[in-house]
Amino acid sequence: MTQRKNTKRALLASVLSIVLCAAMLVGLTFAWFTDGVSTESNKIVAGNLDVALYNVDGDVETEVTENTNLFDSGSLWEPGHVEVVNLKIANLGSLALTYQFAINVASEKGSVNVYGNEFKLSDYIKFAVIEGNQSYESRDAAITAAEEAGSVPISQLNVNDENVLYPEGSSDGISEKYITLVVYMPTSVGNDANYMTADNVSAPEINLGVTLAATQTPYESDSFGIDYDAAAAVNTEEELRDAVAQGGDVVLYSDIELTDELDINTDTVLDLSGNTIVFSADTYGSNSSSSDPHNTPIQVNAGATLTITGNGTIDASSASDYVVPVNCNGGNLVIENGTITVDTPRESCVYVWNGGTVTIYDGLFINSSSEDYAYGDGAPLTLNMSNGNPGTITVYGGTFVGRDPDLGDDNLGGTFVAAGYQSTEVSAGRFVVTEQGTTPVGNAEDMTAAIKDPNTEIVLLENDIDVGGCVYVGDNSTTIDLGGNTLSNAFIIVETLSDEDLEVVIENGTISGDGVDTDNYYGLIDVYGYSQDQPAKVTVKDVVVDASANNGTPALKFYNSDVILDNVTVTGSVIHNDSDTLVINGGNYTGRASDKYVILSTFTATGADQVIFQVTTTNPTVRDFTINGGIFNYDPASFPIYNAGGNSSSMFIKINGGTFNGVTYSPDMYDSLIQD
User: Fold this and answer.
1) Residues 398 and 490 grouped into a single domain
2) d(CA 424, CA 183)
3) What is the sign, positive or negative, of the torsion defined by CA atoms of 216, 218, 222, 228?
4) Torsions phi, psi of 235, nearest 5?
5) CB burial string 87-121: b at 16+ within 10 A, e below
6) Are strands 176-184 and 126-131 parallel, antiparallel or unpaired?
7) Among 96, 233, 239, 92, which residue's Cα sits nearest to residue 164?
8) Structural domain count, the chain
9) What is the mean pLDDT of the chain?
10) Alpha carbon distance 294, 35 (integer Å)
11) Is 0.85 surpassed by the pTM of this model?
12) Residue 441 placed within a domain
């Protein structure tokens, strides 16, 4: 992925962090220059974007930091409970800024009400932002003011307040603004939000936060006016045209419909920011011109570079058959990510001619036409170039629906795929470009084949896959990259039956048992090494293992193995460890238990002794079990897990960190197993 250093981009969209459990605001300062310059008669100072949030209590104004508690963390939310918070938003810098302020739910835990229905507090707690530094004589007065301001449940809110703040001392407008937050539970809320007092039901919890986003706004001038910083934020077609005319970084804050061609004549970074540019008209540009062979909403002309980023969408699926969304006319086009769509048998998502260059690192390119390509046999095009006056297209990644980029141009041939990369058809008409050694898969059959292929280094899931049983890894060392997707109705067995080394990485996604039958024997991730001298080596990283629907099945089970768990979430089951080495580096582990709960066990559990970890040893060799961090939870609402014990004298546990919730611990029984 290309790296860009562009100081102006930092001024475009500097977003302040979400506040957890109370409020957090980080004031970010950006400068165009690395230093100031002074002479006897002149001083040149860098402009900066700097915003701050203050908690106002009477005459005292205290800057809000990540450690500031705006709300009462000990509040018991019940009908009629009200909290009022006074804040000031201030521009401390020398640049004008536009801010957006909102309350959010930083985290929340639902519960079950007295009727047996699940609920969340966010559906019953209301909130409003009121102009000015307000105070109220009574709880009823505060609620009335909030209702008059149009309060709604917190779960429905997005941006609550936005405005422009100018530098202090400016005659153009204010540099600070006072607002009042009123958050309350209406008195009309009944037992729908009254949680059930039962042994297996915990109280609902909610952590409130605020978000403050600040971006530069056009204000500062040079000898040519204020146009030079006009690209700070774009919400309309007119603003988009003005911004790209100036060049630099352009950030979309709204969906935009283009009604005519948008020419790129200077270097521009177009950050779609998750938004959509849509084309629905029949014609764009100069289709009748011999110098411009295609209708095109966006055209990159010679001497200019357009970089598209921000995971948004350029949608021409409702446009004319003769419209190509992005046309590179002698310029340079770089696509980092996002989606480009057409629905035509005559055009492509991207077209290049007149010696232009197109470089694609990632993204989704869809030609959804069901018709054959108008000028030949085969599927509609996703990428295309001029036959008589071509350019170049180089693809390093992305997904292409309609035509394989490895086929190159429909007439000139060749390949668009970069050297060292490959294109794989993961489903009918859907092609994914990855580095060689990485095999994208879209179904269980292809995943199994890729795992067995000795040339496959990384198996990459392109979508959720319902396995319906076992995924066996035992032939080759490999990495299974879940790609943020879910393997459902599945359990993975990593097994080596020879003295050959086996190293496996499982990362980035979810493994869900969904009730799959493992005969109560295998874990959802089950590792079995050839011997203690030749263990199977497995790393599980950034994975959720959900065994909540698998009664009697451990989530993780290890034997003769060296296992590292990095940021793993385990729900509804235990870890059964009979391993040479097990290292836990963070994560969240929730076991099943009913009566007595212990964190470590080396004996045969029967009825009264339930475990989150079942630690056993069947061989005399010393085993190492290290916990460096993580959260370990007791869940009394779940079903217990039992497993056999062994020779406890050979097991050693080293705990360097972690949080252990709901644990009953017996020193007499377990101290001999723990090494400080």
Assistant:
1) no
2) 53
3) positive
4) -125, -15
5) bbbbbbbbbbbbbbbbbbbbeeebbbbeeeeebbb
6) antiparallel
7) 96
8) 3
9) 75
10) 48
11) no
12) no
Cα–Cα distance between 242 and 318 in angstroms, integer? 26
Residue type, 332: N
Q: How many CA atoms lie within 13 A of 188 on its CB side?
A: 3
User: How many angstroms separate the CA atoms of 179 and 183, rounded?
Assistant: 13
pLDDT at 611 > cutoff 50? no
Q: Domain containing 82: what range?
A: 7-216
Structure-derived torsion over alpha carbons of residues 614, 620, 622, 625, reported in degrees to the nearest 10: -10
- The reply to whether 249 and 149 lie within a common domain is no
For 437-466, the pLDDT digits (tens) are 888 888 888 999 998 888 888 999 988 998
Residue 228: strand, helix, or coil: helix
Nearest to 77 by CA among 167, 154, 172: 154
Q: What contacts 156, CB < 8 A, 6 or more positions away?
A: none
Residues 192 and 318 in one domain: no
Rounded to whole angstroms, the Cα distance separating 103 from 444 reads: 43
d(CA 492, CA 506): 10
Spell out where 332-461 has E strands. Answer: 332-335, 339-342, 350-353, 357-360, 364-367, 383-385, 392-395, 398-401, 421-427, 430-435, 438-441, 458-461
The answer to whether position 270 is within a domain reads yes
Number of Cβ atoms within 10 Å of the Cβ of 676 = 5
> Could you write out the DSSP letters of every residue in 182-206?
EEE--TT--GGG-B---TT-PPPEE
108 and 56 assigned to the same domain: yes
The Cα–Cα gap between 605 and 599 comes to 12
For 570, how many CA atoms within 13 A lie in the half-sphere containing its CB? 32
Q: Which residue has the tokens 């029967």?
A: 606
Which residue has tokens 């969304």? 325
Same domain, 50 and 185: yes
Residue 223 falls inside a structural domain: no
Separation of CA 64 from chain center: 27
Whole-number Å distance between alpha carbons of 310 and 262: 19
pLDDT tens-place string over residues 239-256: 899 889 888 888 888 899
- pLDDT higher than threshold 60 for residue 259: yes
Report the SS3 class of residue 155: helix
